[in-house]
């Protein structure tokens, strides 16, 4: 069994796997399997970063600059919606990419998961993130059942542009939380 046995839409976002190095924002798990353990079992060098330091994650703050180098794949699977402020978190993801790196990201759809996080990017956020930062979007789709729908995005670094944060009006702030 692997952590994607019941998460087909998420696995689809990762495939095809690229390269051998991975950076994961958060310490994602499904049941007994952490994503870190699974990807390492496939032969990937995997580093996870989460302020809690659980499940083998480095206990680092995603609002502070990370100096971990670059990676072939960067994943943000349900992490960025918990990070305030947003810009440093997205900067860390994009600065960990080299040309050819792949970003996979899932974030709650606005109006869904309102009890879960604070930040909910609109689809236009992903379009602008890619356009401003030299990424070619491969996929952007919604998956999941109401009230747990998520945006799924996969993008490849096409050019080496410096980080530019899209307009934060493209991210809904959940003030009710």
Oligomer: single chain
Order of helices and strands: HEEEHEEHEEHEEE
CATH superfamily: Vaccinia Virus protein VP39
Strand line-up of the largest beta sheet: 4-1-5-6-9-8
Through-space gap between termini: 35 Å
Mean pLDDT: 93
Structure annotation, total helices: 4
Any overview of this molecule?
By secondary structure, this protein is an alpha/beta fold. The chain has a single domain (8-173), classed as Rossmann fold (3-Layer(aba) Sandwich), CATH 3.40.50. Helix content is 20%, strand content 32%. The chain is built from four helices and ten strands. It has helices spanning 8-14, 35-41, 86-95, 123-133; strands spanning 21-25, 29-30, 33-34, 45-49, 71-77, 97-108, 119-121, 135-143, 150-157, 171-173. The strands form three sheets. The chain has a six-stranded mixed beta sheet, sandwiched between helices. Strands 2-3 form a two-stranded antiparallel ribbon. The protein has a two-stranded antiparallel sheet with strand order 7-10. Strand 2 (29-30) and strand 3 (33-34) form a beta hairpin. It is globular and about 40 Å long. It starts with 7 loop residues before the first helix and ends with a strand.
Break the fold down into its secondary structure elements and pairings.
Blueprint: H1 8-14, E1 21-25, E2 29-30, E3 33-34, H2 35-41, E4 45-49, E5 71-77, H3 86-95, E6 97-108, E7 119-121, H4 123-133, E8 135-143, E9 150-157, E10 171-173
């Amino acid at each position: 069994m692997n952590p994607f046995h019941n998460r087909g839409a998420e696995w689809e976002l990762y495939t095809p796997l690229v390269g051998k190095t991975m950076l994961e924002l958060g310490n994602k798990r499904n049941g007994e399997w952490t994503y870190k353990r699974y990807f390492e079992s496939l032969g990937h060098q995997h580093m996870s970063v989460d302020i809690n330091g659980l499940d083998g994650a480095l206990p680092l703050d995603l609002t502070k600059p990370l100096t971990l180098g670059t990676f072939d794949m960067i994943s943000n699977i349900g992490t960025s919606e918990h990070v305030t402020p947003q810009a440093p978190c997205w900067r860390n993801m994009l600065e960990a990419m080299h040309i050819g790196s792949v970003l996979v990201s899932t974030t709650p759809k606005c109006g869904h998961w309102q009890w879960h996080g604070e930040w909910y990017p609109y689809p236009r956020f992903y379009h602008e993130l890619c356009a401003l930062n030299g990424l070619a979007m491969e996929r952007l789709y919604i998956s999941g059942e109401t009230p747990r729908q998520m945006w799924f995005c996969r993008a490849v670094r096409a050019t080496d542009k410096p980080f530019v944060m899209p307009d934060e009006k493209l991210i809904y702030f959940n003030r009710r939380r």
